[in-house]
Specification:
This protein is of the alpha/beta class. It has eight helices and six strands, in the order E-H-E-E-E-H-E-H-H-E-H-H-H-H. A hairpin with a 7-residue loop joins strand 2 and strand 3.
C-alpha cells in the first residue's frame, strides 16, 4: 500500500493526541507501517494542536506535505479552516460542530463565523465534507469527553482508512482507562453510524 495521510486538528484538551494514538496503534495491530507526529503549541491552555498519521509501505517520515492529506479530521471548525492547506479535492474532511472560540476573537472583538460560512470555505478545497454532531453524540454515549472518539468512529464509518474497524476498537480498549471504556466504545459506534449512513 502506497500511503494514506490523516491530519487531525483542533485545540488542546480535545483528546487529539489520544485519537491519533488509537489510529496509530490499530494500524500497527493490522501489521501496517505507520508514522505518527504531534505538533502542538499550548495544548494545556486551549492552543492549537495538530497531529498527523501516515500509513503505508512507502511512508518514512511523519510529516504530511501541503495538499497531501487523504483525510482531515477537524475537532474544532476554525482550526479545521486553519489546516485546509493540507487539503485538495481528493481530501475527505470530517468536521465536528463543537465550537471553541479562540481567545484572539474576543481580544479583537470579532464574531465567530457561522457554520454555513465555514462549510462554504471548506468547499473551496474539497467537496467531500461530513459534519458530525460530536457534542450530541458524545452526550448520548454517556460522556461529553468522548467527542474525540466519536470522530475516530466517524472516520471509520467513511470506510476510507486502510485500518480495520475492529482494530480501532481494540486499540481504543487498550488505550482508554477501564472505567471509561464502555462510554468510549458507545461513542465510537455512534460516530461510525453517523457517517456510514451518509455514505450509503
Amino acid at each position: 500500500m502506497k500511503g494514506f495521510n490523516v491530519v487531525l486538528a483542533g485545540v488542546g484538551g480535545q483528546g487529539i493526541l489520544l485519537a491519533a494514538e488509537i489510529i496509530g496503534t490499530a494500524t500497527v495491530n493490522d501489521g501496517l507501517n505507520v508514522r505518527v507526529s504531534e505538533i502542538h503549541g499550548m495544548a494545556q491552555r486551549g492552543g492549537a494542536v495538530t497531529s498527523t498519521v501516515r500509513i503505508g509501505d512507502e511512508v518514512f517520515a511523519p510529516t504530511v506535505m501541503e495538499g497531501q492529506a487523504d483525510m482531515l479530521i477537524g475537532f474544532e471548525p476554525l482550526e479545521t479552516l486553519r489546516n485546509l492547506l493540507y487539503c485538495s479535492e481528493k481530501t475527505s474532511v470530517l468536521l465536528s460542530d463543537e465550537r471553541i472560540p479562540p481567545p484572539e476573537l474576543a481580544a479583537k472583538n470579532l464574531k465567530y463565523p457561522d457554520m454555513k460560512e465555514i462549510l462554504e470555505r471548506i468547499g473551496c478545497f474539497s467537496q467531500k465534507v461530513s459534519l458530525v454532531k460530536t457534542g450530541e453524540l458524545a452526550k448520548k454515549a454517556g460522556s461529553t469527553l468522548t467527542q474525540n472518539v466519536v470522530l475516530v468512529g466517524a472516520s471509520a464509518g467513511l470506510g476510507l482508512m486502510p485500518v480495520k474497524t475492529e482494530s480501532l476498537l481494540e486499540a481504543l480498549r487498550e488505550l482508554v482507562p477501564a472505567k471509561h471504556v464502555e462510554a468510549n466504545v458507545k461513542a465510537f459506534r455512534l460516530g461510525y453510524e453517523s457517517t456510514r449512513q451518509k455514505e450509503q
